[in-house]
């Protein structure tokens, strides 16, 4: 593609050198530069791409996009000075791949909790309705039936456009995408055309990155602020910041709620470990998913499908056929009669939601044992909060390791313990080894007791000192409960 085509609808400040060279590839990592490639120098959180301009030219880049021009310009190279390199990268990436997001119904879901569940549920609903779609989520990227391992919740903008371009080529009509706060803040969704945006909730998370809750809130809101007037914004009216998302959006505004009046209103009529009886907009149906948080997830998925123009009965019928999302309130029962719940809950709000859902279902004759930890090298402020919640809402909490990464697991556990209230000191113990912690929970449990293993969900590894070791909570629960029941 030539440079003029790449710069369609893309503003720039200065151009030096050949005005319309052919571009073979776009890169923002100098190590990936090839002959006739265009290198975008992005100022990142860890390093500045401007430091690698010479390296990119040596590897073959003939066009450089940058915010600051080098002192000495190479006469064989074209330099494009722009106001914001990361935004420009998104715009030219879309142009390079033929603006695939404009040829699809691209639906983005953001919020602290529920993004993976809602996008995955939407992908399954639309499959049941007979439509091929793409899925971009924390767990995996999917194009129709093809599954690609996931690297980030929101991948970089080049990868995104490549996935969406392939989705268009293979006949997908819809694409469902998790939109993370990191992805918004780092302009990874720049240049994408969203037909619809959904908001789940916002609670304490990622404050290691965003520093303050207000900053985190503003970043999430930016997604809605930048929607075009033809788009539809759907928010959770029960979340205290739900309507904040709609304040400055040009998009058409819609709401959903379980507690308050909304465009899409739901009620949980019955719930147990096998599922829920729900009422959406006056119609009752059964789902195998359970828990109040899943009531919200399904209601948002219902709202999106309805706004896409499907018939209510068809959508509800599709929802009633859904299976649980991997690692999201997955339930198992051992031969000894112990109930297990494996869930990804790794934020205070998510953990509280799962514990509340279990406590609403259990008759209080069963004990609730919670095994959980917190990830290393991440938000420290949420650790004591999770210690307080787990010990307050469980019969026994076993604090263990999650993904310690480069931190000492014992130090993480100490920070979690700091939040335990004095009246709950007798309700917890600490076992740094996650396998041993699960084993202790099973030893302590009696038939009909419930063990929640929280924090990792779909993940099949533990990250310790830069190494990923195979560890799957569900596999571990099944293996240990089998061994210990013999």
Description:
By secondary structure, the chain is α/β, with parallel strands linked by helices. It has three domains: 3-96, MurE/MurF, N-terminal domain (Udp-n-acetylmuramoylalanyl-d-glutamate--2,6- Diaminopimelate Ligase, Chain: A, domain 1, 3-Layer(aba) Sandwich); 100-320, UDP-N-acetylmuramoyl-L-alanine:D-glutamate ligase (3-Layer(aba) Sandwich), CATH 3.40.1190; 330-485, Alpha-Beta Complex (Protein-Tyrosine Phosphatase, Chain A). The protein has 15 helices and 24 strands. The strands form four sheets. Strands 9-8-7-10-6-11-12-13-14-15-16 form an eleven-stranded mixed β-sheet, with helices on both faces. Helix 4 packs across helix 9 (292-307). The relative contact order is 0.08.
Quick structural summary:
The chain has 486 residues and is of the alpha/beta class. The chain is 32% helix and 23% strand.
Which features characterize this protein?
24 strands, magnesium, Udp-n-acetylmuramoylalanyl-d-glutamate--2,6- Diaminopimelate Ligase, Chain: A, domain 1, 11-stranded mixed beta sheet, 6-stranded mixed beta sheet, 32% helix, alpha/beta, Protein-Tyrosine Phosphatase, Chain A, UDP-N-acetylmuramoyl-L-alanine:D-glutamate ligase, 486 residues, globular
